[in-house]
Amino acid sequence: MSIFVRSNFNNWYRMAYNLLKGKKGIIFGALDEKSIAWKTAEIIRQEGGEFVLTNAPIAMRLGKISELAEKTGSEIIPADATSVPDLENLVSKSVEVLGGKLDFILHSIGMSPNVRKGKPYGDLNYEWMLKSMDISAISFHKVMQTAEKLDAMNEWGSIIALSYIAAQRTYPDYSDMAQAKAMLESIARSYGERFGQLKNVRVNTISQSPTMTRAGRGVGGFDAFLKFAKKMSPLGNASAEECANYITIMFSDFTRMVTMQNLMHDGGFSNSGMTQEMISQLMEQ
């Protein structure tokens, strides 16, 4: 097990205890040191896990994935997660490189052309919307279907995708990404049932606090999202590193009976109707 020693409210010091010793997997979406996938890769390595890093070729050119690969002693296999041939190559080569079947997969992928281009929700480009769904949600199905067809997952493996509460609630400027996240969570439930029956593989999504990643910064008004969520969360916003800790636990054998869930990792935001901090602020106005 891992021991966490807290020195103050905002900082954790962690000791590694090989929670993932001997486990192998694939991590999608590590772009730079602020990304959740990047933090997860670092912690998984500390906990004894091995993995292949992957991202779309264009994302690799924009990010720093080579630095992470060097730091963690990992190989990089480029793949467009919307391309089944790319995924087949990724999964088969990962099994070869890692010397065995996979125990975990992290899907940390999301992009909306409509959001990037600032299209209002009443004037969406529908071709772009379909692209949003393909990249941000359908790719998750493609990853799991490919892993199933290639028989690449070990028994009692764990697959995680990152979601956001906009799948259940409306947020200005999140646009068609809300539909993409809702689809992502639905796919996790449906494939979780299937993979559980086939190989005891569990499939979950984690609904994370708003986090200042490159993807997050692309959403209009994101700074306001962060401030509002912090005021409405009894524990404050969960950081990228704290999310990475949670993902690592979900990949460990301590969570073998958790599947088909959308797990809220948001400092209590999702169950808060009103907090004293928000009341005080409104009264001041």
What does this structure look like?
The chain has one domain: Rossmann fold (3-Layer(aba) Sandwich), CATH 3.40.50. Helices cover 45% and strands 18% of the residues. The chain contains 11 helices and 9 strands. A 7-stranded parallel beta sheet has the order 5-4-3-6-7-8-9, with helices on both faces. A two-stranded antiparallel sheet has the order 1-2. Helix 4 packs parallel to helix 6 (126-149) and helix 6 runs parallel beside helix 7 (177-199). The protein is globular and about 60 Å long. It starts with a strand and ends with a helix.
Question: What's the short story on this structure?
Answer:
Helices cover 45% and strands 18% of the residues.
Characteristic terms for this protein:
9 strands, 45% helix, 18% strand, alpha/beta, Rossmann fold, globular, seven-stranded parallel beta sheet, two-stranded antiparallel ribbon, single chain, 285 residues
Give me the secondary-structure topology.
Elements: E1 3-8, E2 11-15, E3 24-28, H1 36-46, E4 50-54, H2 57-62, H3 65-72, E5 75-76, H4 84-98, E6 102-107, H5 113-116, H6 126-149, E7 153-163, H7 177-199, E8 202-208, H8 214-217, H9 222-232, H10 240-251, E9 262-265, H11 276-284
Parallel strand pairs: 3-4, 3-6, 4-5, 6-7, 7-8, 8-9
Antiparallel strand pairs: 1-2
CATH architecture term: 3-Layer(aba) Sandwich
The share of residues in helices is 40-55%
What is the approximate shape? globular
Average of pLDDT: 91
Number of strands: 9
CATH topology: Rossmann fold
- Describe the largest sheet: 7 strands, parallel
Strand order of the largest sheet: 5-4-3-6-7-8-9
Please state the structural category.
alpha/beta
Give the helices and strands as they follow along the chain: EEEHEHHEHEHHEHEHHHEH
Low-confidence stretches: 1-12
Reading off the top of the CATH hierarchy, the class is best stated as Alpha Beta
Question: What is the tally of helical segments?
Answer: 11
Number of domains: 1
**Any idea what the radius of gyration is?**
19 Å
Q: CATH H level: which superfamily?
A: NAD(P)-binding Rossmann-like Domain
Which range does the strand content fall in?
Answer: 15-25%
From the N-terminal CA to the C-terminal CA, the straight-line distance is 47 Å
